[in-house]
Specification:
The chain has three helices and two strands. It is mainly alpha-helical. The structure holds iron/sulfur cluster (SF4).
Length: 98
């Protein structure tokens, strides 16, 4: 990512290109970009603290804009306090041996 581009765009398909073309104005107010939250993963993998990320979103002023952007761009990760993509099929539960 080019310097100064919000890491938020790393969650967006083609995010680097989008960042070069236009940075949505609301991203300037993204709470997750504050240095104190840089260690919180918004693209959670196994073992990451998802509730911690969502608690940050709950206090963010641009939560609605973020969610709308995440859905519109088919992004992955946590956007506006929701895990995207929505409607992902539930993970299969392994069959219990009988
Ligand atoms: S709602 Fe959450 S993911 Fe979106 S900008 Fe705010 S803190 Fe970041």
């Amino acid at each position: 990512m080019p310097a100064g581009v919000p890491w938020l765009l790393e969650r967006t398909p083609g995010g680097e290109l989008a960042a070069l073309l236009e940075r949505p104005a609301w991203m300037a107010d993204a709470l997750c970009q504050e240095p104190r939250y840089r260690r919180v993963s918004f693209i959670p993998t196994r073992g990451d603290d998802v509730p911690a990320a969502k608690r940050i979103c709950a206090r963010c002023l641009v939560r609605q804009e973020c969610y709308t952007f995440g859905v519109a761009t088919r992004s992955v990760g946590i956007w506006g306090g929701e895990s995207l993509p929505l409607g992902r099929p539930a993970r299969r539960t392994p069959k219990t041996p009988t």
